[in-house]
Write a structure and sequence with these properties.
Blueprint lengths: L3 H4 L11 E2 H8 L3 H10 L6 E3 L3 E4 L1 H16 L4 H10 L1 H6 L4 H17 L1
Antiparallel strand pairs: 1-3, 2-3
């Protein structure tokens, strides 16, 4: 999904359970108001809301946002077209969201766990 040339531009997703809207904005290079708008437009994007209506995104939300960004900004889809593409083939979208930096990060984390055992 993400073009190889753009994978290196985005930072790897850290191994955290929840991310604030500001952190997600930095991880995906998207402003918070755009994330709030996408939340209204894409039913798949549902961050956890806690005290004071604050949004907390999980790892799969960050991956989904990167997919949406790729569809809209890099592949030229409209909001409606991206929404339809994501609802038509969610299995294909899930398969294509892995990039090299995420794999390296996961391998490093797993090696650390193995070393502790």
């Amino acid at each position: 999904m993400l073009e190889p040339k753009n994978n290196d531009e985005l930072p790897p997703i850290p191994p955290k359970r929840y991310f604030t809207i500001g952190e997600v904005g930095e991880l995906c290079a998207v402003k918070p108001h755009v994330l709030r708008y996408w939340e209204a437009e894409f039913p798949q994007l549902k961050p956890v809301k806690r005290r004071g209506n604050r949004r907390y995104y999980q790892r799969q939300d960050v991956i989904l946002i990167r997919q949406i960004k790729s569809l809209l900004y890099e592949q030229g889809y409209t909001i409606g077209g991206a929404r339809q593409k994501m609802s038509d083939n969610p299995e294909d979208m899930a398969k294509s969201n892995v990039n090299a930096s995420e794999i390296k990060s996961l391998v490093k984390d797993l090696e650390g766990v193995i070393a502790r055992l």
